[in-house]
Amino acid sequence: MLKLLSTALLFTSLSVSAATSVDLVKSTTSWDGTSLPAYTLTQPEVTIKEIVIAPGEKLPMHQHPAINAGVLLSGTLTVYSGDKVLNMQAGDSLVELVNTSHYGENTGTEAAKIIVFYISEKGHAVTVIDK
Fold first, then answer.
1. I need a labelling partner for 62 at 20 to 30 A (CA). Which of 15, 42, 69, 94 fits?
2. The domain containing residue 44 runs over which residues?
3. Does residue 14 belong to any structural domain of this protein?
């Protein structure tokens, strides 16, 4: 009887932990409220980038011709587009602007590390620097 009880407790303790799933972001709009563009891809290509921005570093003004989303893993990041400003802290997620000029700046004291997921036409640029 004791052996049966011990075995039952072991199986119960093993089944207590289970995988979880949490949506960090799910949206039809970018962070500024603009609707994401509809587009069809002939050959989709997924790109995942780790971008590290040093303290005090300001990225150049740029655009993304592809829908993308990211999660700030560490540090702080401020994103500017015209008169719109987005302040991000570690753990924040965002859906980026598409075909809209913007830039990010690390105004914090530690590196800002962000993971960004892009989906585009195979071989096409996911970021274009403004001229």
1. 42
2. 23-129
3. no
- Calculate mean pLDDT across residues 37-46: 95
Bridge partner residues of 62 (DSSP): 102, 129
State the total domains in the chain.
Answer: 1
What is the pLDDT at residue 98? 96
At 113, which CATH number? 2.60.120.10
- Domain-embedded: residue 6: no
Let me know if residue 15 belongs to a domain: no
DSSP conformation letters of 35-94: BPPP---SSEEEEEEEEEE-TT-BPPPEE-SSEEEEEEEESEEEEEETTEEEEEETT-EE
| pTM summary value | 0.82
Instruction: Tell me the two tokens of residue 18.
Output: 């289970």
Establish if 65 belongs to a structural domain: yes
Q: How many CA atoms lie within 13 A of 104 on its CB side?
A: 23
